[in-house]
UniProtKB/TrEMBL annotation:
Transmembrane segments: none annotated. Gene3D superfamilies: 2.40.40.20, 3.40.50.740, ADC-like domains, Dimethylsulfoxide Reductase, domain 2. GO terms for molecular function: 4 iron, 4 sulfur cluster binding; metal ion binding; molybdopterin cofactor binding; oxidoreductase activity. The keyword Iron-sulfur applies. This is Nitrate reductase. PROSITE patterns: 4FE4S_MOW_BIS_MGD, MOLYBDOPTERIN_PROK_3. It comes from the Bacteria. Residues 763-789 are annotated as: Disordered. The lineage of its organism: Bacteria, Bacillati, Actinomycetota, Actinomycetes, Kitasatosporales.
Length: 789
């Protein structure tokens, strides 16, 4: 059934034609020597190793996880699992943190919970008393449950009262949220995975879905291999597996997305590929969009993007002549300097053609992490819970009533702080207490030398909750051992609004605890309370947190009131909003072309896409969107760093199919780790030749921030572009030693995808680079021996 899903990444094809349901195929992996008869119980849940959220069951034997299998009835995967889903969980049973650690004499030493929490609370209380809430920051994740996020949001925003809350979602999906807010008035994925089953064309903008949501790609492949395949357009500087299947591949220079998008819009308007009735009835801003794209011809964009004008025309023609397009947009667009504008243009091309809210016509502004969506919903980042607008006093009052706190406690006097600013304030000294939960910034943030300096500096007290020792825990003052995934019960929501319940399958190791319990312990020790002196948060268990969250979501776009643990256990994934009037959930949003842009309902009044300046309520009202979507873009600007004579190449970064981020889990899964055991750097063949570099040679890559060394893979990356995976830490190997401290002005998402670098050969290596041969990292020429074996 899954003999070697390392080599056979997507598994066997089960083709399906347009309009027909995606066939089931149940994937399973059990540890060697364990048969189904040996299993004590199968526990329901979903995979937590990407935003797809594939429904599965965990096999438990003797209190340990021994296997997994997909849930055939789940709407997301119809039984399938990808390599990370099948093999990744094994890493959770190795090398775990089992006790709290505190720093003593410069070293981390084991301690008990009481001592560790005592230290946390002592520092937190004294700073709060002397400097107030602005001394506190919470930097969380896209990998917790909604119960955990909501508990933390109430502690931070209702109890402590700090605006300094953000997640690594800033690095990941901040642009998805921002683009939704700018165009539709609030966050919320309009479309559904089932649109893949109905579309006649797929556009992938900066999205290597083949490696990053393997089961979604399997769904697309099953359409591509059927009798009526959709056309496919791929925008990516590398020849990914997606690009190999594309009708048109646009390998644009990294950092030039907006130029391409402005040209695509130009073409749609110039050829009259516009649904004028839809545009008139359901949008505002067309005249301005038309004006801003008058001069942005394919020839103009071709110069900037470095692809032939005829290919841009061909892509536009495909969009203009299709009835049902699904577009996805991901990190190639989001981790860039004009990210929100480029992502808004993806929304715009759908609005121009009236392609939204019906089967097969949809936008998927992707998430990456399994519960990035929940961080945004529950308000652990910039948003207030339930997509409430911090700039709307009624929304703030709502929350104050829900939490029984004075509205003045809830930070709403200015925009919430983004993670770039949080680290800057810690660097400058105004933040003296930073709690990092479920993220590893010492590998994942840009410009790592600076991040290490900030985290190790004495002035900021750093608490880290994680399941393992990581590059970040090593810089902390207190480390708290957390329960992971199937060691706890909780819900999370994938990229197409599908909510899953993970049920506890096994006990956490040693003294590790789930994050809800850790947060509540902190809140109680701090004596956080509501107006009447009752404990805040008012709950004690994840199940109660879920009920409290449901109440907070009532009447908001992400309404969870119709969901319960029982229902999720029975059905598997269900899409929000799920209410008494939509008890099965809701497949698509905005089917009637009415959007959340009413000024009293919207999550944000929007921004100037060029500068990030807030639009403000008065100017927002003057647009009179009132339920119509907002078409907006801005002029293309070059990235922060362009190649020059010292740093002549364009550096970009991303993922490989076999690893999850900083590899805390996947490096401990034997199959996955063997498939991609160590760092590499990808160069195009002409660049390698020019620099005298052969496959496997050790190269040094240098930017203005630092340098790294790794074996070179000569791959199908665009000429002039150097690609590196960001999974591997280490101060002489981590990709983020090289990246810039810079971000999109609206979403504040860091620019991980463009930096200027120089590459030089250091010497010969030991055979080919340790890069996969099965993916976008495949070598241009056959290797003497291949990895993975
Ligand atoms: N195997 C695996 N899967 C994952 C993850 C993982 O770590 N490993 N992480 C998950 C998470 S959190 C996320 S956010 C998603 C990310 O999913 P993706 O966005 O698909 O992943 P990336 O590899 O970061 O970037 C996608 C592509 O962008 C291209 N690119 C680089 N620069 C540019 C540019 O300027 N323009 C354009 N158009 N393209 C560019 C890269 O060549 C790359 O192929 O994956 C999720 N799934
Ligand atoms: N150069 C470059 N840098 C990037 C990117 C890129 O494309 N290029 N992508 C960015 C993106 S999109 C992302 S999402 C980030 C990811 O970056 P990180 O969030 O730093 O990466 P992870 O390895 O997923 O870190 C999550 C940590 O949380 C721990 N953890 C997992 N589950 C739990 C839990 O339930 N509770 C607790 N307390 N801990 C838990 C894990 O052990 C792990 O240490 O990286 C970003 N950085
Ligand atoms: S596609 Fe994502 S959610 Fe599904 S099995 Fe793979 S890693 Fe897990
Ligand atoms: Mo991400």
């Amino acid at each position: 059934m899954c003999s070697d899903r390392i080599m056979d990444i997507w598994g066997a094809r089960t083709p399906h034609t347009k309009g027909n349901p995606w066939p089931e195929r149940v994937d399973q992996f059990m540890l060697d020597g364990v048969g189904e008869a040996d299993v004590d119980k199968w526990v329901r849940g979903a995979c937590l190793l990407c935003s797809n959220g594939c429904g599965l069951e965990v096999a438990v034997r003797g209190g340990r996880m021994v296997g997994v299998r997909g849930r055939a009835e789940d709407r997301i995967n119809h039984g399938r699992l990808g390599p990370k889903g099948l093999y990744g969980w094994q890493g959770e049973q190795r090398d775990r943190l089992t006790t709290p650690l505190i720093r003593q004499g410069g070293r981390l030493v084991e301690t008990d919970w009481d001592t560790a929490m005592g230290k946390v609370v002592e520092r937190s209380r004294s700073l709060l008393d002397s400097k107030g809430p602005l001394s506190h920051a919470f930097y969380s994740s896209g990998q917790l449950t909604i119960e955990e996020y909501y508990t933390l949001a109430v502690i931070g925003k209702g109890g402590i009262g700090t605006p300094h809350m953000d997640g690594n979602t800033r690095l990941c999906t901040a642009t998805a949220a921002a683009a939704f807010q700018e165009t539709f008035g609030s966050d919320g994925q309009p479309s559904s995975y089932t649109d893949i089953d109905h579309c006649d064309t797929v556009f992938l903008f900066g999205h290597n879905v083949a490696e990053t949501q393997t089961v979604l790609w399997a769904r697309m492949l099953d359409r591509l291999d059927a009798a009526d395949p959709p056309r496919l357009v791929c925008v990516d500087p590398r020849r990914t597996k997606v690009a190999e299947r594309a009708t048109v591949h646009l390998p644009i220079r990294n950092g030039t997305n907006l130029a391409l998008m402005n040209a695509l819009v130009h073409e749609l308007i110039a050829h009259g590929w516009v649904d004028t009735d839809y545009v008139e009835a359901h949008t505002v801003g067309f005249e301005q969009l038309d004006q801003q794209t008058r001069e942005t011809t394919p020839e103009w964009a071709a110069e900037i993007c470095g692809v032939p004008a005829r290919d841009i025309r061909a892509a536009a023609e495909i969009f203009g002549s299709s009835d049902n397009v699904v577009s996805t947009c991901s990190m190639g667009f989001y981790q860039s300097h004009q990210a929100t504008a480029a992502a808004c243009q993806v929304n715009n091309i759908h609005l121009l053609r009236g392609m939204l809210g019906r089967p097969g016509a949809g936008i998927l502004q992707m998430n990456g992490q399994p519960s990035a969506q929940n961080n945004r919903e529950a308000g652990c980042g910039p948003a207030l819970p339930g997509f409430r607008n911090w700039d709307n006093p009624d929304h703030v009052r709502d929350l104050a009533e829900l939490w029984n706190v004075d509205p003045i406690v809830i930070p709403h006097w200015a925009a919430p702080t983004d993670s770039n600013a949080i680290f800057r304030y810690a660097e400058q000294g105004s933040i003296g207490f930073l709690w990092i939960v479920a993220t590893n910034p010492a590998v994942s943030m840009p410009d790592l030398a600076r991040i290490r300096r900030i985290l190790s500096d004495e002035q900021c007290f750093v608490v880290v909750s994680d399941g393992y020792r990581t590059e970040t825990t090593e810089l902390a003052d207190v480390v708290l051992p957390a329960a992971l995934w199937a060691e706890k019960t909780g819900t999370f929501t994938n990229v197409d609004r599908t909510v899953h319940l993970q049920e506890q399958a096994v006990e956490p190791p040693g003294e590790a605890r789930d994050d809800t319990r850790i947060f509540l312990d902190y809140a109680r020790r701090m004596g956080l309370s509501d107006k009447d002196g009752r404990p805040l948060p008012s709950w004690d268990t994840p199940a109660q947190a879920f009920d409290a969250w449901k109440a907070a979501s009532a009447g908001r776009p992400c309404d969870y009131t119709g969901l319960s643990y029982e229902l999720l256990h029975e059905v598997g994934g269900i899409q929000w909003p799920c209410t008494s009037t939509a008890p099965q959930g809701t497949e698509r949003l905005y089917v009637d072309g009415t959007f959340n842009t009413d000024p009293d309902a919207c999550e944000s009044f929007g921004h100037d896409l060029a500068t990030g300046a807030p639009v403000g309520r008065a100017a927002y009202m003057a647009q009179r969107a009132d339920g119509r979507a907002i078409l907006k873009t801005t002029a293309y600007d070059p990235p922060f760093e362009e190649p020059d004579s010292t740093y002549p190449l364009r550096f970009t970064t991303g993922r490989t199919v076999y690893h999850w981020h900083t590899r805390t889990k996947t490096s401990r899964s034997p199959q996955l780790n063997t498939a991609a055991p160590a760092m590499w750097v990808e160069l195009s063949e002409p660049d390698a030749e020019g620099l005298g570099i052969s496959e496997g040679d050790i190269v040094r890559v240098t930017s203005r921030r630092g340098s790294i060394q790794a074996p070179a893979r000569i791959s199908h990356t665009r000429e002039g572009v150097v690609f590196a995976p960001f999974h591997y830490g280490g101060s002489d190997t981590a990709a983020n030693e090289l990246t810039v401290t810079g971000w999109d002005p609206v979403s504040k998402q860091p620019e991980f995808k463009v930096a200027a670098v120089a590459v030089e050969r250091i010497g010969p290596g030991q055979g080919p680079a340790p890069a996969p041969t099965t993916t976008a990292s495949a070598p241009v020429r056959p290797l003497d021996h291949t990895t993975p074996k």
